[in-house]
Amino acid sequence: MNLQQMKYYKHKKGYSYAQLSELSGVPLGTIQKIFSGETKSPRHATLVALEKVLAPRDEADMLREPAVWYHSGKDKYTLEDYYALPDDQRAELIDGMLFTMAAPSLMHQMISMEASYKIKDFIRRQKGNCVVLAAPADVQLDCDEHTMVEPDIVIVCDRDKLTDRCIMGAPDFILEILSPATRQKDMFLKLTKYRNAGVQEYWMVDLEKARVIAYFFEEDEIPVIYGLGESIPVKIFGGELKIDFSEAEQSQRVPESSQ
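That's the Helix-turn-helix domain-containing protein sequence above. Prediction below.
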């Protein structure tokens, strides 16, 4: 865990320096020097003690940083690090932090394919200019060196944002299918990133709670909550396209005979 990650999780968990010192056993002065950047290369034992306290419990997909990178003085990962990952390692880069991505479940893929097909068919019938893409498709959200995300589904209506390598800038619409490993990241970290970057509409398909959380930032900061079987209007298309996830809802039901 590098300095940037420690700062993020310290803030997320609401720890003061004194609390962090008490929980980790690391002297208060040492912690203050590390977080201020005065201490560039903390002892390994100190880092281990801090990581035990700060390490996320529900974001085990975060990529652990090799010690050589931390001790080189690097506080943030960049696109250079992202592109240096093995070809078979899917990951996202968010504000200089790397998160690994496990292979999606079959239900995840079924939902993604069905929703993508409905969107693509609508655009084709309307002879629209928008493009729908499903993961894996890189999105250089902030057009900087520290963020590259891979949403499950995106709709891009400005084709100038499409390059051979990635989407440059914010898509108009993003859909994420929540999983236990990505739930916190998608619901909090990515929500903020997408809103600030200029994404107009953001859906989160929550299979665990059988719901879809839909944000349309141009109208309201408060999301609308739908059931999986409800017809949900895609606001960037004026509500003319409606999508439901009834197949996912049916698969979530447990027959009474099996209970």
